[in-house]
Structures are given as C-alpha cells and as structure tokens.
TrEMBL record:
SUPFAM superfamilies: Riboflavin synthase domain-like (SSF63380)
Stated name of the protein: FAD-binding 9 siderophore-interacting domain protein
Alphabetized GO MF terms: oxidoreductase activity
FAD-binding FR-type domain location: 16-121
UniProt-listed CDD domains: siderophore_interacting
Amino acid sequence: MTTTAHGRFTSLLLDLATHEAEVTRVEEVGAGLRWVSIVGDGLRKAAWTPGDVVQVVVVGETLLGPWEIRSYTPLALDPATGTAEILWHVHGNGPGSDWAASAVGGAPCRVAGPRRGVRLPASRGALVFFGDETSFSTAVAVHRARDVRVVLEVESVEGARAVLDRFGLVDVVLVAREPGDAHLAEVERAVLAAHRVGPDAAPVLTGKASSVQRLHRALRGAGVQGRRISSVPYWAPGKKGLKGH
C-alpha cells in the first residue's frame, strides 16, 4: 500500500480499528521462539476464549502507511490487566517474525481484537490437536482449557520438548521433520491413533497448510465427519497473512 489518498484513508480506518499497546516482556525461550507479553487498555475486559487471535500491526505507522497486520494466538489473555501473552515463532521469513525478533520491553505497538481464530467445539469434549512451532501458543492455550491430545511436527524434538515442558504441555507427541515431508506418515499415524483412543474427540488442525490438508483427508478417510474437523492453516510457503498463529 502506498501513501495515496486511498492509502491514507485505509490507514486512517486501521488506526481507528486498532488501539495503542506496549510490549512489556520479551524472553527467548528456545531456538526461534520468544515469549512476548503485550499490554493495552483495549484488551481490558475483552471477551477471549482459547484459540481466539489478537492482531498486531507489525510494519508501519498506521496513519502514514505502508503497514502490515498479522494475527497471533495468545497462550493466555488476562482481561483484568489487559495482557496478552504470545509464544512467538521467529522464523526469519516475514514481517511478523522480524517484528518479534526486534521487539523489546517498553516498545509501543498497535493491536486489535481479540477475534475468532481456531473454532473449538462448543461441547466440552476431548480434542485432538495438530500443529507445529507456529501452533505452540495455541496448543498451550487449548491444553490449559480442554482435555486434549497433542501431535506436533517440529524441527527439533529435544528443543520443542524443553519449551513445551516449561509451559506445562508435557503429554505431547513430537515428530521431527524429514526431507520431502516423509515424516508426515508418522504424523498421520499419531493423529489417527490419538483419535481412536477417544473416537468422540474433535480434531483441530493448525500449522502448515499442506500438512493440515493431508491430515484432513486422512481423518475423513477414517470416517470422521468433516463438520467435526476444525482446520485453520497458519502458513504456507510463499503466502502471507494466514490466520491465527
């Protein structure tokens, strides 16, 4: 977006739709993972359920443009203090990652939301959750609220386990990535096995779009009704601004 009249008008609308906030905590908790806390009056008394997202302006001064806004799922949001905590995957391949990599305590920012992200079933039944490093924050939030079996594809099993243990997510199946996505056969087996343990459990699929698509097909092939599967891809190679991580 350029600073044309149309661009300025759109930026003005964005400015009205977002609110001022401040980064209050940044901690490196693992390779490519930062624990970021953001506080803003607009988050006070917010209606938030695990899986909902907060949007962060990661590029630009909103009244001037150009700007970029991205959605992230807090692992916790405290409406009493207006604090959103996000376990942020810093992968180096986009403006959201760059923003988190350079974020420091005391830095101002602009946020919007919370808004609907992952749609969890209204019933309080068990869940089967799939994702990757972009899903860690969501996985922790869901684990704290629901009975859930978690399967994650990761770059480093050891590194991922150390991070997730810190946030209390210890009963999780971690599968290391392999060239050509050869590991997805093991991921598929793990997700289907988790579902067989509790056949009434609702699958929630997040993370890489192609992995989500494969697991959706596998679950449908195993007899799971499509309406019971929540699929929210967080990223895909070459695409930007996907929902929710």
